[in-house]
Structure formats: C-alpha cells, structure tokens
Amino acid sequence: MPRPPRSVVPHADVDLFRPTRARPVRVRSRALAADAHFEPHRHAWAQVAYCASGMLQVSAAAPGSASGEVTYIVPPSRAVWIAPHALHSVHVLEAAQFRTLYIDASVAPPHWSGCRVLVVSPLLRELVPALDAPRLPRPREELLTALLLDELRGAETQSLGVPLPPEDTGDRRLRALCEAVLRAPAERATLAQWAADVGASERTMARLFREQLGTSYGRWRQQAVLAHALPLLARGTPVGQVAFASGYASESAFTAMFKSAMGQPPSRFQPRAAA
Length: 275
Fold this sequence. Notes:
Number of helices: 9
Number of domains: 2
CATH architecture of the largest domain: Sandwich
Radius of gyration: 19 Å
Number of strands: 10
C-alpha cells in the first residue's frame, strides 16, 4: 500500500524552546505520525534527535563536509547529534514519540563537529523525560541538565549513516553507483559489476569511495543495508524476509552482520521487542 504524502511540520514556535547559557538544555516532546517531515533547516544551537518509539530518518550536511549529505536511520536505541549550524532535515518513517534536545552551543563538546550517531544508554533514556517534566524546580533542572550533558559526552558513538557525494561537485559515476545500490539493496552484485554499469573500473570506484566518502565500498554498502533493514524490522517484517530483501542468502548471515554492527540481533528492533 503506498504511503500518504509527506506532512510538513512547521518551525514557527521553535524559539519557545531556544536554549540559553542559563538554561543550556531544552527538551521538546511531540507525537508525530508516519511521513511527518521537517524541511531542511539549521539552528544556532546543537540538537539531539531521538525517538522514545518509532523510527526517524535524519539527513544532514555539516559545514565544510566533502561528502555532501549523510542519511541516518534512527531507532529508539540510537540518537543523532546535530552540530550548531548544520543543515538537516527529519522524516518520520514510523509513527514516533519524538524527543528533541536543543543544546546551547556554549556547552556543546568543541570537537563534535558535523553529526554523529549516539547509543542511547538506559540512563540517558530516563533523563530525557525527567528533564521534560512540568513545573520542574530550577535546582533539579540544573542537576538533571549537568547529568544529561555528562552522559551525552560519554555516550558510545556508532558508524551508522549512509553518505552520498554532492550532486554538483562530486563524481557523477560515484553518485550514480550509490543511488543504484540504494534502489536495489537486494542486488548481490560486486563492486566491479556496479562499476561497469556506470562506465568505470573497480579500482577507480574503490578510490572514489575512499576519497569522496571516506570509507570502503563494503563498509558503505553495509550502512545502506542497515538503513534499508531497520524500517522493515520496525514494521514487523519477519527477519528472514528482511534478510532476503537486503541481499543475504540466509537469515543467519544477515543476523550475524546486523548484530556485529548494531550490538543487538535484528529481532530486538521489531515491535514486540520494543513493547
């Protein structure tokens, strides 16, 4: 069944949640339907995009990035750090309890440029609603803010994003190859076969992946497979079907790859496990 058209979420009231040096962390909670969409925008402050339930897709381009755009799929066990002034958009893949943390640039870790995926610890998961409680006394808000910032700084990071070369300045062959793989994640072609389709050698494409995306083709394809598989799992698709749709000949091989990348088996990302 085709999905309904995207519903664009306005930014008109964002200033109500603007962080300051006095209140450096503000939490905004919203229930968003599937296909709700935030158009590309940027803030002077940092942001952590997180959902207590559901699934998000965050696309971001950091200032000065040579890789164009990176797309992140965000299940409830992960969050995306978005640096101040980074252009980004958010699309809701599955109905989500969206939790946005706005963080003043004065308390953002100075070396956290661009975007990164954070593993949401049990403590961080509890701190977000605690800081969002109504009529929160100021001394408690300050204590929770300090603890949340400390937990963010110590959070494990994860390489979980699908970079694409820029359309205007990147090599068109690399862009065409990436888009072809994303359109057909079940295709089990080698890099040499994909390269031939776009009129290049395997060696040339391997070099372009390293130079323009900072990764190998194998690593990039794994991220593309995860980005394809996570929404399917969130919709309750059986693991075996997800494995086949992701180009794996067996469920066990897919599960081994998934667990190595995500730290948990794919069954943990299905609705029953989340409940």
